[in-house]
Structures are given as C-alpha cells and as structure tokens.
Design a protein that fits this description.
alpha+beta; 26% helix; Reverse transcriptase Ty1/copia-type domain-containing protein; 3 helices; 3 strands
Length: 72
C-alpha cells in the first residue's frame, strides 16, 4: 500500500535532517547519517565547544566489549 493513499502527506523536497540526525547523500547513492549537531550541542552544554579537536582513529576490526564483560 502506498503511504500517500493511507496518510495525508506533502512533499517538502529533499530531507536534510530527521530527528536531529543529518542525512548526507553520497556520490554513489549511499546515505550517511551524522550526529555532528548533537555533538556540538553537548560540547556547548559542558563548556567544551572551544576545545581543540583531535583525530583518534580506531581500526575497524577492533572489538569493543563492556567493562562488565571484561570483569567476568
């Protein structure tokens, strides 16, 4: 069933933000979700918005576990 027939809708064009998440279209047709605005708001709330940014890359094969699991 088409959503337009079931619900009243208007086409507002291309979507850039949904629930505070930025949507960025990639050249290959992919869509990237980014929460940069949320992070900026949190940094401002705690007075850290002027801090120096540092890149801290993590290998994609790194497996993260909770501290609870590490103590068992």
């Amino acid at each position: 069933m088409d959503l337009k027939t079931r619900f009243e809708m208007t086409d507002s064009g291309k979507c850039a933000f949904v629930l505070g998440i930025e949507l960025v279209d990639g050249p290959d047709g992919s869509v990237t979700m980014c929460q940069r605005r949320y992070v900026d708001d949190i940094l401002k709330r705690f007075g850290m918005d002027e801090c120096k940014a540092v890149v801290s890359p993590v290998d994609i094969s790194t497996r993260l576990i909770s501290s609870d699991a590490a103590t068992k």
